[in-house]
Amino acid sequence: MNEAGGDSRFFKRLFETTNVDKLRELGSRRILRRALTAKDLVAIGLGTMIGGGIFTTIGTGVKGAGPAVIVSYLLAGLTSFFAALCYAELGAMVPVAGSAYTYAYATMGKLFAWIIGFALIFEYGISAAPVAQQFSAAVQDVLKTLGISLPAWAQQSALVIHGSWWMPQNWDLAHSQVDILSAVFVLLLSVLLAIGIRETATTNNIFVVLKISALIVFIFAGLSLVHLANFHNFSPHGWGALSPFGGMMDYSSSAQPYGIIAISAYVFFSYIGFDTATTTAEECKNPQRDVPMGVIGALAIGTVIYCATALVLVGAVPWNQVPIKNPLVYALAPLHMPVLNWIITMGVLAGTTSVALSSLLGQSRIFYVMARDKMLPPVVAKVHPKFKTPAITTMITGVAVALLALIVPLNQLLNLVNIGTLIAFTVVCAGVLYLRHRKPDMPRSFRVPFVPLFPILGIVCSLFLAVFGLSRATWTWFAIALVVGLIFFFAYGFRKSDPQDVVPVLEPEGLQEV
To answer: Which residue, among 224, 336, 249, 267, has the nearest Cα to 68 in the 3D structure?
Structure first.
């Protein structure tokens, strides 16, 4: 009887939820500096969305889907749209930092909250590493035009292994390389984040303007090169192989992923980040209004820019001639205007900078909230008395991401980012359904239309892309990482955290509301 009672208490603790009303009360407190507006949140969302994805995945996307890459972008955008509506409703209801982690804690309980918090590490933390590597490659291209080259061992991350990435036989460190520039880049951005949110937002806004301007220049300059004949044979590879875990090739394979579904899962990386706006809810002047506007605004603007860029690219260059590297520069080459190449290069530099900045911002805020909930050691949640930012969390995040960027190749990271995001999307959509059923009378300044249809479509689309668009290797790596995370959860977070204790910990002595 006692054993049964113990089991009952154990499972009850696993699925304990935080009190949504207490979270709303916490969101009204001013522990972090409230300096962000809806415009800043749109820029933060675009800062994470546009840059690393569109400049680097579109070449592979066109090779794998032909002109139908436009459909792949639309499918990925539609999945993100359903999730964005759910993010907007929950973000307005629970204006607390933490994004999907906080929403899961309030709706599904402690265990699901930890799993989603762990998945968000893939979305935010890991995504900053490949973007930093893209920045490094762009800088090195510029340096080469000036006759400057880094030593061969410091030009890129190339961790040489024998076997496959999901089942390595041995690691050949003697022939591996590291990416010095990307690691230094991440550390410098982390210092900027630790200094202050207002300074970060201002810097991010500048880079967002630069990279969107570069894409607009490409779209209008490339229109004169568009030929309708290039849209013939619109979908050369069809939808692709619709088999579970068969969409993307193994990491160790050099083969190209083919078909609309596989490419949709691949270019989904371009959409990651619009939800970054929800991680800064406690730093908004008016979160009930700013969060929905920031999330939906960023996604809408980003989708229009992606589709317009894809249309011009496949219209200007036959799809089977589009290069994987620097496809936008290649498309504008017939215009013989070197200034356009420099504009695109500046867009890549600005884009990757703002994406990495926003990703690191989101990850540091996720860790801050998890530590505040004692899922992680509470010292991580300490707010700096001068800068009023979680400086310790920010720098820990920066060092970890810098190490990833230093040694792990770009291609091995992208799909792990996608799977973490798709799982987070699934839980957020489910959270809206749960709260609509359990707390229908709770005030909602924004409501998802057509409930339960839209949240269900968000769940179905996210799981469809994850299962049919990603490889078995991706799922294997994610499962291994999740097991490691759960070991830490049961060793620390499960015992230390209390869902009813949502009071911030380790506030600096004398910290005043701002």
So the answer is: 267
- How far apart CA 218 and CA 329 sit, in angstroms, is 9
Compute the distance between CA of residue 320 and CA of residue 325 in angstroms, rounded to an integer. Answer: 14
Phi, psi of 100 (to 5 degrees): -60, -30
State how far Cα 422 lies from the chain centre. 10
Q: What is the mean pLDDT of residues 478-500?
A: 88
Continuous H helices in 270-337? 287-316, 327-332
pTM of the model: 0.79
Q: Which helix (H) or strand (E) holds 110?
A: helix 110-120
- Cβ(190)–Cβ(394) below 8 Å: yes
* DSSP string over 254-285: -PPP-SHHHHHHHHGGGGTTGGGGGGGGGGBS
CA dihedral 409, 470, 306, 219 (to 10 degrees): 60
139 neighbors 155 (Cβ within 8 angstroms):
no
Question: Please, which residues bridge with residue 160 across strands?
Answer: 172
| CATH fold for the domain made of 32-496 | Amino acid/polyamine transporter I (1.20.1740)
How many angstroms separate the CA atoms of 50 and 60, rounded? 17
H or E stretch covering 32: none
Nearest one of 271, 313, 352 to 62, comparing CA atoms: 313
The answer to whether the beta carbons of residues 18 and 500 sit under 8 Å apart is: yes
| Residue 466 Cα distances to 58, 130, 226, 315, angstroms | 19, 20, 34, 30
pLDDT score at 405: 86
Domain spans of the chain, in order of start: 32-496
In this structure, how many other beta carbons lie within 10 angstroms of the beta carbon of residue 238?
14
Bigger pLDDT: 190 vs 290: 190
Contact (CB, 8 A) for 66 and 234: yes
CA distances from 20 to 92, 101, 105, 442 (A): 12, 13, 9, 9
